[in-house]
């Protein structure tokens, strides 16, 4: 029922934005008759594209699904950006009419439509290519807690890779090349490693399995692991060489690592874990460095941890959506020092969800050089 409600809201919102584009395009280009009918048919197909893609994936028609995914999701980015750009330009035109009542003419409207299309196309092209340039964010964190000799350890975090229809093969390899270059002692995945239909991507687990850090690989679930099918997601993640922590803790290299299941599992009644997680956290007098892995960046400072690693927000992925994600997650991305010894790092993620585009939220992996304060 929740999924049906979500789809109805999404299709209404997305359909409305496409209608806005159609009305502005018709005002500027004055099309009618057969041309108008063809454009309406294409726009309806593009609105329904996410549903068509999932259906084709289920039927294992991968090539047409990928073609429609690129067309449909790139258009999604374009029409959302056009909406915001044109709305801003139109608001400027309306405001200017207070000074010049004749500023609402047809010629000016056509100029603003053309300008909005040009700005949006430029942003989409930039975002398409920028989404493939993986950045490496490097942090240096000092601690009084016990670390293995020689008193330092390198943790590499990947998040929100979204391996699936669009992110696999060469694009996945680019992400993994950056991970290998970082030479991790521990590799962490903070959820949404996978996306969509998984039958077609199980072989990609071998690419991840080739990375073998000294102290192991640890992963937690994200919401998309549950959407894609939790059992297959867990199978993939294990084949990729990760130990999965589902409301569980483990110890590696002197670190106390706690991994929490994404709350989506509890909502879908697929977690199978107790809601009482207090037993996972060590006593506050513990000398162990506590690393908390949690997909969604909700923060509980009353829990005993030193560093929380999260993802989920994508940093907004496409401007101006980071302004909206901040409503739900005030710590939207990046490093945040909390009270006392606690801190959190929220990754913008290495992949993309939906549109294969990032605008002012570049993809990243995170390298955390954890050092004992006694080490110079």
Which features would summarize this protein structure in a list?
376 residues, six-stranded mixed sheet, Purple Acid Phosphatase, chain A, domain 2, alpha/beta, globular
Structural class: alpha/beta
The biggest sheet amounts to:
6 strands, mixed
| CATH level 1 name of the largest domain | Alpha Beta
Quote the CATH topology of the largest domain.
Purple Acid Phosphatase, chain A, domain 2
Q: What is the distance, rounded to the nearest whole angstrom, between the alpha carbons of the first and last residues?
A: 57 Å
The CATH homologous superfamily of the largest domain corresponds to Metallo-dependent phosphatases
How many discrete structural domains? 2
Averaging pLDDT over every residue, what do you get?
A: 91
Number of helices: 11
Helix content: 40-55%
| CATH architecture title of the largest domain | 4-Layer Sandwich
Itemize the secondary structure elements and their pairings.
Blueprint: H1 2-29, H2 33-47, H3 49-58, H4 62-96, H5 106-130, E1 135-143, E2 152-158, H6 169-182, E3 186-189, H7 205-209, E4 217-219, H8 223-228, H9 230-239, E5 243-244, E6 248-252, E7 255-260, H10 263-267, E8 289-294, E9 307-310, H11 321-328, E10 334-337, E11 343-346, E12 364-372
Parallel strand pairs: 1-12, 2-3, 3-4, 4-5, 7-8, 8-9, 9-11
Antiparallel strand pairs: 2-12, 6-7, 10-11
Provide a compact summary of the structure.
The protein has 11 helices and 12 strands.
């Amino acid at each position: 029922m929740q999924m049906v409600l979500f789809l109805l809201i999404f299709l209404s919102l997305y359909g409305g934005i496409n209608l806005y584009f159609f009305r502005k395009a018709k005002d500027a280009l004055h099309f009618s008759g057969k041309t108008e009918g063809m454009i309406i048919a294409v726009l309806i197909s593009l609105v329904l594209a996410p549903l068509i893609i999932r259906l084709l994936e289920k039927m294992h028609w991968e090539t047409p699904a990928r073609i429609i995914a690129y067309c449909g999701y790139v258009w999604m980015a374009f029409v959302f950006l056009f909406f915001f750009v044109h709305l801003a330009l139109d608001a400027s035109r309306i405001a200017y009419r207070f000074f010049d009542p004749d500023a609402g003419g047809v010629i000016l409207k056509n100029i603003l439509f053309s300008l909005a299309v040009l700005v949006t196309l430029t942003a989409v092209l930039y975002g398409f290519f920028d989404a493939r340039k993986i950045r490496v964010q490097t942090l240096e964190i000092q601690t009084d807690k016990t670390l293995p000799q020689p008193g330092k350890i390198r943790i590499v975090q990947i998040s929100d890779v979204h391996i699936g229809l669009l992110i696999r093969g060469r694009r996945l390899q680019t992400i993994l090349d950056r991970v290998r270059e970082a030479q991790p002692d521990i590799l962490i995945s903070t959820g949404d490693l996978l996306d969509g239909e998984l039958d077609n991507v199980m072989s990609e687990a071998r690419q991840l399995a080739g990375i073998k850090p000294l102290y192991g690989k640890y992963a937690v679930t994200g919401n998309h692991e549950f959407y894609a099918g939790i059992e297959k997601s867990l199978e993939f993640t294990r084949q990729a060489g990760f130990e999965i922590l589902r409301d569980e803790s483990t110890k590696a290299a002197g670190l106390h690592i706690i991994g929490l299941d994404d709350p989506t599992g509890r909502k879908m009644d697929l977690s199978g874990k107790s809601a009482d997680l207090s037993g996972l956290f060590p006593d506050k007098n513990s000398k162990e460095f506590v690393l908390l892995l949690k997909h969604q960046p909700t923060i509980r400072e009353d829990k005993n941890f030193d560093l929380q690693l999260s993802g989920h927000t994508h940093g907004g992925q496409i401007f101006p959506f980071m302004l909206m994600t901040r409503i739900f997650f005030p710590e939207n991305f990046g490093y945040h020092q909390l009270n006392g010894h606690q801190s959190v790092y929220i990754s913008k993620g290495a992949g993309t969800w939906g549109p294969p585009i990032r605008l002012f939220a570049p993809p990243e992996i995170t390298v955390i050089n954890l050092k004992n304060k006694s080490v110079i």
